Amino acid sequence: MQERKLAIVDLSKGKVQTYTIPKSWRRGFLGGRGINSYLLYNLLEKGTDPFSPRNVFILGVGPLGGTLAPSSSRFSASALSPETGFLGDANCGGFFGPELRYAGFDHLVLRGKAKNPSYVNVQDGEIEIRDGRDYWGMDTYDVQKAFRKDLGDVESVVCGVAGENKVRFACLRTGVKNAAGRCGLGAVMGSKNVKAVVASGTDGIEVEHPEEMLEVVKDIKDYLMASKITPILGSMGTPLLYEISNTIGAIRTKNSQLNAWSDSLNAEELEKYVEKMISCSSCFMHCRHRNMFDGEGPEYTAVGLLGANLGLDDYPEVIKLNNTCNELGLDVSSSGTILSWAFELYKKGLIDKKMTGQELRFGDFELADELLHKISKREGFGDILAESSKAVKKFGPKSEDYLIAVKGLPQSDPHDVRYIKAFGLGIATASRGADHLRSRPTLEIFFRLPLEVKEKIYGKGVTADPTSYDGKEKAVYFSDNIFATIDSVGICKFICHGFNSPHFLSYEHFSKLLHAVTGMRFGEKELENIGKRIIDTERMFNFKHGMTAKDDTLPKRYFDDPMKLKVGKGHRIERKGFQKMKKRYYKLRNWNEQGRVKKQRVKQIESYGGLP
Amino acid sequence: MKYLFYHPEKCTGCKQCAMACSLNKFGECNPKKSAISIVRDEFERYEYAIVCMQCEEAPCIEVCHQGSYYLEDNVIKRDDDQCIHCRLCAAVCPHSAITTVGKEIVKCDLCDGDPKCVKYCSTEALVYEEETKEQAAKRQELAKKILSTS
């Protein structure tokens, strides 16, 4: 088995220390998000301010990253989130993750703070903190182009102007649109005076059983390509989900005042503005749109949150806002949610021109674009919006009633969860806040899926009716576990079981791929248990930093205001039903009544130990 | 005669061709150590494969003073045992299709008639098929053009 490396870069002292990743960690947490979360739990002290040099910023790639394994482009970035004060974690595709591994490292930890604007260069096993003053102030496109001009064929993960200015929802960017979007990790990078981590390496990933890998991947490729949904995902990408949600009346519209919007944002309309579909590293699906406005995207989140949620129905305008977020380094999900929140508050008279400096309204593309620029520079009213959900302090306590966020994280999913109850439980309990990529049991949306299929995936006791609370904890539990494992092996959820399809890749496929690449044997049950261990570790981290069961809740509007349109009409989340479902979820997780990981389990997880 | 054909408009830039090639030839996944290279730049908005065109008048065979390159069943092959790693072949290749990385020199040999790059391409940007007369004429014309300008 090939050894893999981890490096800790102390930006304050200018020192780099390299370690071999303990085999026990690889067995217990795999890599990527799993090892990142375990490291965070170990390295971060209670009471740390997310913007202080004591916060740590971690990049991690899974054991399949950068190989022939399908869609093995992903890496995870983790830190204490400045947007929530809890776990900050985001997963990202593109070509950077593989390149970091080719450069010799699976995990990179940045701690401390550089004296001057810097960048971290990782090349063929060597790590150097370099002067980055010439790159400071550049947008995410220009800085990456500059690195390629100055350093050759490199891949970089960067923060934009928004990250430099510590906008609490600044993302990390690599390539034109790949984002480690959520939780403000770009702001953490910026707070450390780091513009980028740049990677290049000529060493590949040594594969333990090459023949076996060629065979396993060929079988997987044939399996994926035979699916009816594959060509649809490859031509429409995630925007496909817009129409599905909108049909039932579950598209967040104008800050969830409404729940359905225009068909003009359906995926087939988008095709008019697409030059070509392209891929991340090692991907058979090619779900990425190269759009005709000099950018890439949009994804479903951008369509919903920069479209319907801002009251915009013109695709070119939505695509342009998406491109603006990409260039500035802003998280699309938080951007769309925070802007729409402010628009409604203005309309309701909870904030006024004295604070905003201008009239705010839905359906105004120029205004939205201008505000995004102001946010990234923290200019005028943009400085308040840059605080994300923490702007409640400025807007007043009543404003919180209209904020679509959980644990301080604006909801990423454009899907209004008042109808499908399992989606509600998912965003309420997800370890990073209101986010669908942690545990969304997407199959709940396919109403016609036979109960047997659901039972086979989620277990007995789950109910067919998406509006029922019964057994829905099982659907969330299954999804939460498998998504954690997926994020830790280093592949994309798009091709995995339970996310887009009742088929696709599951534990048995991960097991085969892991054996071919590393020679390590992981049983299917063991891989599921790793997912559970990661969820528990993240829970331990969150509770260490002040979270309680009260934080596992939903925006007030989802409880109190029934949906107004289409199939969803009249639906809301009932507090009683929700609380009972949440309790059952805790029980399933073997957490105590207060949602805390039990002492014995904490001990067991802590026994994996620190760095040697 | 079967040839490897590349359709750039279908290429999504995923590099699975190069991953499979390096895995098959060296037991590692390394898109930089592959007989097929994907040159891509998402900011300039292109992705393009570079791979041996099996030239009929092959500069690599002509320039190699060690006799490392030879023709076998219309496929240009390379014998590493004869090679002194001077890299002249890579320097003269009009398609820049000979990869040199570290000590290795890598050139496409069509995997003895079962090219791995084609097997793992999901969009048929790479195909291995019998050449039509039109394709042959086009290929020869292109080769002449490149040779006359290089």
Kindly identify the CATH topology of the largest domain in chain A.
Aldehyde Ferredoxin Oxidoreductase,  A, domain 1
| Gross morphology of chain A | globular
Summed over residues and divided by their number, the pLDDT of chain A gives a mean of 97
User: Mind summarizing the main beta sheet of chain B?
Assistant: 2 strands, antiparallel
Low-pLDDT runs of chain B = none
What fraction, in percent, of the residue positions of chain B are helical? Answer: 25-40%
- Can you write the helix and strand succession of chain B as a string? EHEEEHEEHEEHEH
Q: What is the quaternary state of this protein? A: heterodimer
- What's the CATH C level of chain B? Alpha Beta
Q: Indicate the radius of gyration of chain B in whole angstroms.
A: 15 Å
CATH class of the largest domain in chain A: Alpha Beta
Structural class of chain B: alpha+beta
Structural class of chain A: alpha+beta
The count of domains of chain B is 1
User: In order across it, which strands form the biggest sheet of chain A?
Assistant: 2-1-6-3-4-5
- Overall number of domains of chain A: 3
Please state the second-level CATH architecture of chain B: 2-Layer Sandwich
Biggest sheet, spatial arrangement of strands of chain B: 1-9
Number of separate helices of chain A: 25
The value of Rg of chain A in angstroms is 22 Å
Largest interface: A-B, 38 and 31 residues
